[in-house]
Structures are given as structure tokens and as C-alpha cells.
Amino acid sequence: MTALPYGTWPSPITADLIISKSVSIGDLGVGAHGLWWSEGRPEEGGRVQLVRQLANGTHFDVLPEGFGARTRVHEYGGGAWWLHGDDVVFANWADQRLYRMPEDSHEPVALTPAPAAEHGDRYADMRFTADGRWVVCVRERHSADGEPTNEIVAVRTHPDGEPAEPIVLVSGPDFLAAPRVSPDGTLLTWFSWHHPDMPWDGTELHVATLIVELHDGGRIDLGASVVLAGSRDESITEPDWHPDGSLLFVADRSNWWNLYRFTAEQLHEALVSGVSPQPTLLTPMDSDITLGHWVFDQSRYAVLADGRILFAHIVGGSDRLAVISADGTRVTPVDSPLTSISSLRAFGNGAALVGSSFRHEPVVVAIDVPNTDHVPVAEDATVAASIGIVRPSRDLGVEQNWFAHPESIEFATTGDRTAYGLFYPPTNPGVSELADERPPLIVLSHGGPTAAARPQLALGVQFWTSRGFAVVDVNYGGSTGYGRAFRKQLDGLWGIVDVEDCIAAAQYLVATDRVDAERLIIRGGSAGGFTTLAALTFHDVFAAGCSLYGIADLEVLATDTHKFESRYLDSLIGPWPERSDLYRERSPIHHTERLSCPLIVLQGLDDAVVPPNQAELMVQALAERGLPHAYLAFEGEGHGFRQAATMKRALEAEAYFYSKVLGFELADPVEPVTIVNL
């Protein structure tokens, strides 16, 4: 092997490879004859296609040209489609109307009227009534005046003539999610929350009688309702029904997002008396089951055909599987190679899910978990699952020894706290390291900020490690997966705790002699972009940075962003405008005189979450300071890049930028970037 300086290593993990035939597998559904799933395809301009599996195991694309299953609700979307047998209803990206694609047709049928304003009515998180004649979902209605309104509505799936206006079932709360119809069709559950809370702060769980009548053209309405649980101090999410009529939900009342159950009898009594019952805790464990409700229709548990409940939970930043016995008295760990799990659905006698590991990209798998309910087992026993791949990941043509396998780290940070991360060492089987050199480090600050480092193969990370960079993906205070108290560490301290923890991660790796203290880089997107900008502005630790659609001015964000996050900063910073002093104090744009290192800024021009003016203000300040910087703005891109050409250009531009400001030559030529003030 040849000894080469870090950063100059040749690698087969190129930007072209990363985007070639790249798909992001999203939601999973169970049809009458097999599985369905959604695929986000950068090579098709970010279009989301629905894919259906046939009984013989083959699969095909469902939606015709011009249609894509993606919703704009909350801007982050999720839950854009659902099945009744093999009929599918979906929210179409181009016009945001609901469409039904009958099993025996190739032409979608519009179910909702055209809105008064473009994209004015948006739909998500849908479920059918028991007879399939209605779909119940969340509608977000935009108008010229005031903020959008969120409601739960019912939409006819077989309209006579032109689509009719949906029937409003629930209105009033600022936000609504997860309308779920009981198996017998007589009850509806959902959860809600109000400004200024976010759904991981405090929500309320509701149940109501559902009235569906077929005479006189059909009628749907709600009867008696009751708030079952929740408050501003308890986050409830993922309500769903057990086939026996009991109601399952996830709540963090114990500090951890655990699974609870109300029996059918408790629900009946609550609807009669109006008094909230006491649920049964099914998973008494110090582990989070769910993730933050950033997108609709997340599913981290499923009731199997035999009554057991299979669920995912987070341990040390990675996902594990476990199963609850049918009587709810025993939780047994399930052996699985998967480290990242989503869209867990009951399927046949087992389940199906989207899963990945540090060795492979997401795949669709069917999983069978042997039933040991009546077998005496030791307290620490596990059960081995049988996994079959339904939709494999693409063939990258790259041997496993090119992939850096992360080490889960925890390290001390300010205030006697502990933070966490995934550390990826430089990895390249064709190159040996120089004995007297330590690698540059890229610190990843994830978005959200209430999100987490994803424990799965990320080619965007391997792009760097295979070229001789070390990477650490930081779970700073506020991240999901470590309990409510850890999430709340960021309250009032955004721009402080997250920045300190990213710096602490870098310093920990320097102190353990694994990276070069003079070549530390920080990068992040959205909220992670704010952390990046704050770290570069208020601290002198990093040699370079990259902000992807990052936040530079908190005051602008507080007054010019979408409804879902419009009051998020109340908890992260303080109420606006009462604490405008804090907003200015922590906004990098107001302290650009403290910037002292090069920065590349990447921005989508159609971004409704972090408008382009945020990036443009920062670039102007960099120019005035005379600092080396580059700015790339992309037409047709929103919050997060989805088009293949954008993804390629952004990644290669970032690599080129680092090579020039840190003084090394890339092994492979890329299109140059204009670096001002270099």
C-alpha cells in the first residue's frame, strides 16, 4: 500500500456513485397481496414513486408520469399515502390534492377539489374507514390572511361526479396528527398540541365515537370525545389500535418514550364518564421507542397476528428490536443485524420494515419472530429473528472494507454533562497512513435540533472517510434517543449546549490523539447549519465550515418561517419579541466581526423553512470581513437537496473547498468552485 497524506486518498465512493440509482425508501404499506413502499428518486428530480410487490415477489412502479406521493404538510411531510386492500390514496406533490389509484386502473382519480390558491390545501397522515368509503386525514389549509389552519377531515373515496369539499371532523387545536380508525370502525383516536409547544414537548391523546352512515348519500361525524392522556409536560405520539379494540400509544411520562395501552373497556367507560383512565405500561425500560414527530406516520411498533407486539427502541444511539408477549407481561430482546429501523408494519404472521445497518443502505425486509410466550426462558434470553429481503439496496460495487465502521462514543462536556456521538475513522484499504500525521476531522451537527445521528450506512460520510477524513456525528444535548431530560437540555440554550457539545467531541478526539487539532471542520444543515455558524462565530476552534441551508439570523427565523416551527424558538431561545436580546445575542449574523475562518454556504432557492435571505446575509458578511468563502444557490431546491445534479455539485464543491483552504490536492478532479478572498 502507498502512504498518502490524509484528504488525498483516491476512492471509488464518488459523488456519481452516491447519486447513481440512489433512492430513499420511505413509508411502507401492506396491501391485499403484498407490500408497498415509497421511493424518493433524485435522478427523477426528487419524485416519490409508489412501488407495489406482487404475489410472485416481483414489483413495479404504480404512479404514472406526472404524479408523485409527497405532501407539504408541516413542510417536512410524511404519511402521504395509505392503502385499502390494493387501492391507494395519495397526496400528489404537484398540486397537493388527494388522489385515489384504484387497483384495476392506471389513472389517478382526484378526490379533493382544486384549492383556491396553489398548494393551498394539503393532506397527510390518512386512514380509511372500515368500509373503505372515506379516508380520514390531516388537512393543512393556507390562505392569504393569518397562519394556516390544521384540521382532521374526511374525504370520500368514491365521489359521485366532481370531488366534494372534505367534511371537517376535528378543528381548534393548532396542530393535529395520527387520526386512526378502530378495527370495528366505531372509534377515532388522534393527538394534538398547541403553540408554543412542539410535539416532543407536550401533546394530548383523544378518542371519540365515529359515526358512519350509508343512507342519504352517506354521513360521517364524531360523537362523544374525551382527552385520554397528555399535557404540556408529556409527549404522546404514535397512537394505534390493537385488533382486540385496545388503544396503544407512546408516551414519555417516565422520562422515556415507552409503550402504553388502554383497554377497550377503559375507552368505553371514559367516553361515558368523561374521566381519563390510567393506562398500563407495556415496556418498563430506560429506552426511547419513538423518534421526534418531525414527519407524519412514523411507525415503530406493530401488533403481530398472534397478539404479540414487535417494537424498535434506541440503545446507545442505535436501534434494537424487542417483542412483547401477547399477555403484555414480558419483553424479550430480538436478535437482529439492523441498527436503523422505520415503518414497522404487521405483515402476514410476522412484520415488515425498512431497515439498514452500518454495512448496507436501507432495504425492505420481512421479519419472522418465533413465539416463545409459552416457553420458559431466562431473564436475559433473546429470540432470533428470521429476516428475508423484499427490496434489496442497490449494488454499489464497493467491497465492505471500504466502509468505516463507527465507534459509539460518549464524552464529558460543559456543566458536568455527557454527550454522545458516532466516530468514523479514516478507512481505505488501498492506502496506508503517514506515521507523523493525524487526519482532519469533520464534525457533523445534525438538524432538528431535536433529531439524532442516524445509525446506518451513509455514503455521504463514507465519501469523506475513504478520502482520509475522520468524521464524528454528534448527539448533543437536545438530541432524540436519550430520554426526555436529555432532550430538554437544549431548552433556552440553543446555540450554546449544541455548540459546546460539538466542540467537546472534537476536543475529545484531539485529546485521544485520533485527529489533527489544526484541521477541524464543522458542517451541518438547517438547525445543524445554525450550530455550525454559531460555532464558527463565537468560538475559535475550527479551521473551516460548511453550512447547508443554515440559520444565520434567529430574529428572521422567528418572524419568517412556516407554521410548524413558528414558535419553536420560544423553548429553544425564549419568547419573541420579549427576549429579542437573546435572539440578537445568539445570531451569528450580528457578530460577524468574530468570524475568523473559511466557510462554504449551500442553499436551495425554494426553501420555505430557512428562506434564502438567511444564506445571503451571511455571505454578504463574509465578503465584508474579507474571509475566504464560497456560495452556491440551487434553483428548484427546497429544504434539503433532492435532485441528483444538486447533490453531486454540492458534495464535490464542498470537497474542493476544503482542499483549497486546508492545502491539499484531491485525488480526483472536480468542477472548481469560485472561492472569494482565498
Keywords for this structure?
678 residues; alpha+beta; Rossmann fold; eight-stranded mixed sheet; five-stranded mixed sheet; 11 helices; globular; Xaa-Pro_dipeptidyl-ppase/CocE; WD40; Peptidase_S9_cat; serine-type peptidase activity
What do the pLDDT scores average to?
95
* Strand order in the largest sheet: 31-32-35-34-36-37-38-39
As residue ranges, the low-confidence spans are none
State the fourth-level CATH superfamily of the domain at 2-14 and 398-556 and 590-662: Alpha/Beta hydrolase fold, catalytic domain
Distance between the termini: 34 Å
Structural class: alpha+beta
Strand fraction:
25-35%
CATH topology of the domain at 2-14 and 398-556 and 590-662: Rossmann fold
Per CATH, which architecture of the domain at 2-14 and 398-556 and 590-662?
A: 3-Layer(aba) Sandwich
| Number of alpha- plus pi-helical segments | 11
Biggest sheet details:
8 strands, mixed
Summarize the amount of helix as a percent range.
10-25%
Number of strands: 39
Radius of gyration: 25 Å
The dominant shape is globular
Q: Class of the domain at 2-14 and 398-556 and 590-662, according to the CATH hierarchy?
A: Alpha Beta
